[in-house]
Amino acid sequence: MNVLIIGNGLAGTLAAKSLRELDPDLGIEVLGEERHPYYPRPNLIEYVAGRLPLEKIFAFPEEWAARQGITLRLGEKVARILPAEKKVETAAGAVLSYDALLIATGARAALPPVPGVDKKGVFVLRTLDDAHDLIAYLEGHRRVAVLGGGLLGLEIARAIRGRGADVEVIEFFDRLLPRQLDPAAAAILRAQFEKTGISVRLRATTKEILGDSGGVRGLRFESGETLGTEAVVIAAGIKPEIGLAADAGLQIGRGVLVDDRMKTSGPGIFAAGDAAEHRGRIYGIIPAAFEQARVAAANMLGQDKPYGGTVPFNTLKVAGLYLTSAGEIDAEGPGFESLVHSDPAAGLYKKIVLQDGRLAGAIWMGTKKGAAEISRLVALKRDVGTIKQALLEDDFDFTEIP
Amino acid sequence: MDKYECTACGYVYDPAVGDPDNGIAPGTSFEALPDTWVCPQCGVPKDLFVKVG
Ligand SMILES: Cc1cc2nc3c(=O)[nH]c(=O)nc-3n(C[C@H](O)[C@H](O)[C@H](O)COP(=O)(O)OP(=O)(O)OC[C@H]3O[C@@H](n4cnc5c(N)ncnc54)[C@H](O)[C@@H]3O)c2cc1C
Ligand SMILES: [Zn+2]
């Protein structure tokens, strides 16, 4: 049996690893458009910040794939899937057959439809090549605007600030990390961020990226205001790579549609990771790509392994603050109840959201004590009706909860 | 021995469990993991882990 995997990001690589663990004799071939072997994308942040040397970016030693009996074809882009013939065709014209196919093409950075996005000095940070380009440009350009105050935008801003550049984060929402934080927590985070010398501009819609043949010169906002800047990094979400699936006639939504076995509508064709849409959801996070890849691998080999979704979980450390955000963090309405414990001066904010007495979500900012435990309880949707107040206390002993 | 969490993906290294899939025996402390060890879930290096007690 021969398995083909399109994409050598996390989902493709971890699926190959799982497949090998499950079947020592399977033919496994991975086609990756990027020239580089697998690297975790979070490492790009550390690399841009100058905290991680290039040689530590890659997850596995160079000979890993060969040792695993995995054929890795780097720099090879798949141009077409031919589902009826169970073949794929590469951009270079090679035709390869498969018994089972995994679409692990991931996503690219979404670009907002703003005039000027194609100017010199406008960047995204998705691949190692993007990182190299950005770092090179920062050598001569010290004023940077980051479009997007989400998780990735803030991480990028912090990394660039770490290189000594002047950074301003532009967010069109009324707060930072709108997906992870409620307004009160976001205000605390903003203050902490500004302490590190990063400016934050909220409720700002970018109308145009200004510049000339020399490159970016500034931004013009809907309000009419302008901001002078020499470089722009866009962190405005992702766009799943679904072109191959669409051309092959597979069912697509925003992503490639998969069922609970990570199977697409095409025979023997599976999908996992940022490219896959499961029950209406595209996660865009590592834990989901990891679980999906493992489930897809098992089902590709004829096992019956279901995927029930991944509870979004995010831990980061920005401006010296630990932040954990899990599940529903700003839900209102019948059945929902929120409890908060906060100390803005210390950068501390803890909140739990209950749905009919069960934990539906939590924000844990400014402390990591209890953060892992609270997100586990959220994942389990634990009934905490009787201890809800105590949970927020700094000295709460989570080991009391079985 | 302390547990450590991957800041990129949330994987928790538990010394009691180790990482047998990747040749790390149960009972190996985080500090004793080789420098080449990476997160078994996403592949980031040890530097990106924080202690969770
Ligand atoms: C800078 C950065 C930091 C991040 N930090 C975190 C974090 O801390 N925590 C977290 O959970 N998530 C994080 N993410 C998101 C995480 O990286 C993604 O969820 C993950 O990479 C998804 O893996 P994937 O394999 O599905 O897709 P990708 O990583 O996008 O990999 C897909 C691969 O497929 C290749 N490909 C596409 N089309 C073709 C084709 N036609 N032929 C051949 N190859 C093709 C692409 O070149 C790419 O290499 C971060 C992302 C970025 C960019
Ligand atoms: Zn990890």
Describe this structure in words.
The complex is a heterodimer of chains A (about 400) and B (about 55). With about 400 residues, chain A is α/β, with parallel strands linked by helices. Chain A has 3 domains: about 1-110 and about 240-300, FAD/NAD(P)-binding domain; about 120-235, FAD/NAD(P)-binding domain, CATH 3.50.50.60; about 315-400, Enolase-like, domain 1, CATH 3.30.390.30. Chain A has helices spanning about 10-20, 40-50, 65, 130-140, 150-160, 185-195, 245, 285-300, 370-380, 390; strands at about 1-5, 25-30, 70-75, 80, 85-90, 95, 100-105, 105-110, 120-125, 145, 165-170, 200, 205-210, 215-220, 225-230, 230-235, 240, 255-260, 270, 275-280, 315-320, 320-325, 335-345, 350-355, 360-365. In chain A, strands 3-2-1-7-19 form a 5-stranded parallel β-sheet. In chain A, a hairpin with a 2-residue loop joins strand 24 and strand 25 (about 360-365). In chain A, helix 1 (about 10-20) runs parallel beside helix 8 (about 285-300) and helix 2 packs parallel to helix 4 (about 130-140). The longest helix of chain A has 15 residues, at about 285-300. The two termini of chain A are about 45 Å apart. The model of chain A has no long low-confidence stretch (mean pLDDT about 95). With about 55 residues, chain B is mainly β. Chain B contains no helices and 3 strands. In chain B, strands 2-1-3 form a 3-stranded antiparallel β-sheet, with no helix packed on it. The mean pLDDT of chain B is about 90. At the A-B interface, helix 1, helix 2, helix 8, strand 21 and helix 9 of A face loops of B. The structure holds flavin-adenine dinucleotide (FAD) and zinc ion. Zinc ion binds next to loops of chain B.
